[in-house]
């Protein structure tokens, strides 16, 4: 079994749907309860055994770098004040020496182009890609589940979930040959198909385990759906040489690239926390409709 040691996190997006918040704060730094969105993807990757973290970022997103840096002055102050639980809260933000690489994607040319930036850092081994916008609550985490399944089938593997037929045009959609439990063998995938032409309702969710030869495909890739260089197309180009499969993970996924999904993720994460669940549960079960004002 090949140990999947490295993961790529594409974080170069502008986050325009979250303006004005993202005018000065990268979208991945917006908090879901008390942790920034990026932390959830990092935690899921760590749990799956990832040891090297490669963020593909962009200009203007320096707060992401600071977040994973040591905050010496802050730590000193907290220590002096005896605030040990506040100090503990910083632990997940620490990276072992040299474990974090932050690259910049100079132009927003799509997900395939973003992943390609990591070529030198991945080298010649299979690796994971996590899109932090897809927040997945699962036990174990979705990437851990995939690492186990990938040990059986190898090749390129994508996470999938069933979506309503009318939603296919928001996703890459798997073209399924056969299914064995949670693993679907695929003959490819289609990026953002209209429901009429969707090959299935198994949508690709932002977790991938890829073989390193994907980089050769990414080098030669032209623009695909939406005029962008699509990771989906690079995977498709390999389908005759390499096993391509989908893994239907167990867990709840929230699309934190949309405001609706972000708010739902916030509620779901809060409800999963013993310190917040009870009071929030009472609040959410109240009639929240706008009060009518008596004439
Ligand atoms: C990307 C991928 C798409 C996938 C989706 C999952 O699209 O290109 O195949 O289904 O992530 O979140 P995006 O949402 O970045 O447009």
Task: Write down the Rg.
Answer: 20 Å
Which architecture would the CATH scheme give at its second level?
A: Alpha-Beta Complex
Instruction: Outline the biggest β-sheet.
Output: 9 strands, mixed
- Rounded average pLDDT: 94
Distinct ligand kinds: 1-O-phosphono-alpha-D-glucopyranose
CATH superfamily: Spore Coat Polysaccharide Biosynthesis Protein SpsA, Chain A
CATH topology, by name, is: Spore Coat Polysaccharide Biosynthesis Protein SpsA, Chain A
Strand content: 15-25%
Given helix and strand content, the structural type is alpha/beta
* Tally of DSSP helical segments: 11
End-to-end Cα distance: 72 Å
List descriptors:
binds 1-O-phosphono-alpha-D-glucopyranose, alpha/beta, two-stranded antiparallel ribbon, 13 strands, 295 residues, 11 helices, 9-stranded mixed sheet, Spore Coat Polysaccharide Biosynthesis Protein SpsA, Chain A
Explain what this protein looks like in three dimensions.
This protein has 295 residues and is an alpha/beta fold. The chain has a single domain, classed as Spore Coat Polysaccharide Biosynthesis Protein SpsA, Chain A. The protein has 11 helices and 13 strands. The chain has helices at residues 37-47, 62-67, 72-80, 84-89, 111-116, 119-122, 142-153, 214-219, 231-237, 259-271, 277-285, and strands spanning 6-10, 31-32, 35-36, 52-57, 100-104, 127-130, 134-137, 156-162, 172-180, 183-191, 202-210, 244-248, 252-255. The strands form 3 sheets. A 9-stranded mixed beta sheet has the order 5-4-1-6-11-8-12-10-9. A hairpin with a 2-residue loop joins strand 2 (31-32) and strand 3 (35-36). It is globular, with a radius of gyration of 20 Å. The structure holds 1-O-phosphono-alpha-D-glucopyranose. 1-O-phosphono-alpha-D-glucopyranose binds at residues 111, 131, 134, 171-172, 191, 203-206, 230, 232, 257.
């Amino acid at each position: 079994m090949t140990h999947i040691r490295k993961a790529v996190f594409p974080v170069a997006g502008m986050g325009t749907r979250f303006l004005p918040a993202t005018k000065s704060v990268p979208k991945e730094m917006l908090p879901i309860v008390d942790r920034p969105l990026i932390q959830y993807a990092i935690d899921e990757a760590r749990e799956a055994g990832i040891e090297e973290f490669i963020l593909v970022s962009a200009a203007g997103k320096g707060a992401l770098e600071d977040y994973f840096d040591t905050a010496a002055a802050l730590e000193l102050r907290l220590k002096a004040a005896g605030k040990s639980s506040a100090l503990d809260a910083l632990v997940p933000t620490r990276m072992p020496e040299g474990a974090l690489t932050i690259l910049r994607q100079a132009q927003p040319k799509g997900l395939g182009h973003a992943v390609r930036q990591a070529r030198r850092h991945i080298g010649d081994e299979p690796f994971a890609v996590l899109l932090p916008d897809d927040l997945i609550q699962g036990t174990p985490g979705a990437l851990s589940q995939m690492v186990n399944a990938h040990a059986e089938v190898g090749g390129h593997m994508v996470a999938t979930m069933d979506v309503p037929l009318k939603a296919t045009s928001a996703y890459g959609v798997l073209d399924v040959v056969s299914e064995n439990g949670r693993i679907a063998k695929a003959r490819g995938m289609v990026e953002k198909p209209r429901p009429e032409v969707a090959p299935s309702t198994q949508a690709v969710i932002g977790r991938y385990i890829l073989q390193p030869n994907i980089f050769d495909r990414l080098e030669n890739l032209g623009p695909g759906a939406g005029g962008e260089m699509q990771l989906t197309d690079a995977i498709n180009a390999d389908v005759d040489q390499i096993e391509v499969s989908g893994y239907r993970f167990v867990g709840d996924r929230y699309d934190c690239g949309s405001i609706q999904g972000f708010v739902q993720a916030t509620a779901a994460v809060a409800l999963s926390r013993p310190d917040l669940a009870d009071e929030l549960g009472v609040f959410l079960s109240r009639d929240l409709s706008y009060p009518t004002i008596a004439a």
